[in-house]
Amino acid sequence: MGAGVGIGKAIAYRCAEAGADLELVDVNQKSLETVKEELSEFKVDIGIHKVDVSKKGEIDALLRGFDGNAPCVLVNNAVIYPSKKFLEVDQAFLKKVFDVNLNSAFRMCQNMIEQRLNKGGIVIDVGSIEALLPLKNDLAHYSMSKAAVIALTTALAKEYARHGSRVNAIVPGGTLTQGTKKMMKEPYKLNLGLVKTGLQFQMRLPVGRFGQPDEIARVAFFLVSELSSCVHGALIVVDGGFLSA
User: Fold this and answer.
1) In terms of residue numbers, what domain contains 118?
2) Are 209 and 202 in contact (CB under 8 A)?
3) What is the pTM of this model?
4) Cα dist from 226 to 2, 57, 235, whole Å
5) Is residue 142 annotated as part of the catalytic site, yes or no?
6) Which of 13, 81, 142, 160 is catalytic?
């Protein structure tokens, strides 16, 4: 999920390069078509699915379309991270964030594990360092949702490893995607506080720079390969050393 841009697109590229057939899911049809066209050089089968993963009905329709033959690898990467002051968060806003960031991953995992029980399958959930060490203000809702994704990962790894499912999480730090680049441009016009937060974040990074989507994708590729055959319930942090600084 979330394969149209950023980290999701980079993961799709690495998997297609290795010869994997893909089922790409995103809310943006145009982005999906662009990714499919860009990956056509690899001569693999690529299905695209425009799905608003915040809506259970659309997820259910997607899963019915696989007709009991779910892909053997699931990457839960769909995410939104709108800023909102904690005291201004209402139920509708909180529900939207959790439906995209957490509930979609829960539903996809539930369906895949059921379809592939004892046949084997690989799940990669994408968390965030904000779940472990919040930096930016006004993202309590986002941090909560990503902390829950990490909890889901470890719980499923414990419960379903014996049934053939390998479930792990990648925990990215600051990564230069289209979304973060857009966020970084806006503050110069509107929000100097966010500029300050970005500078503080970069100053704390031992590597001195933000990550690139492909640096996350390479870790994801490791997790879907047999190189990680004994990696279960792991939280692999890819943050340029932020958490250790």
Assistant:
1) 6-244
2) yes
3) 0.90
4) 24, 34, 18
5) yes
6) 142
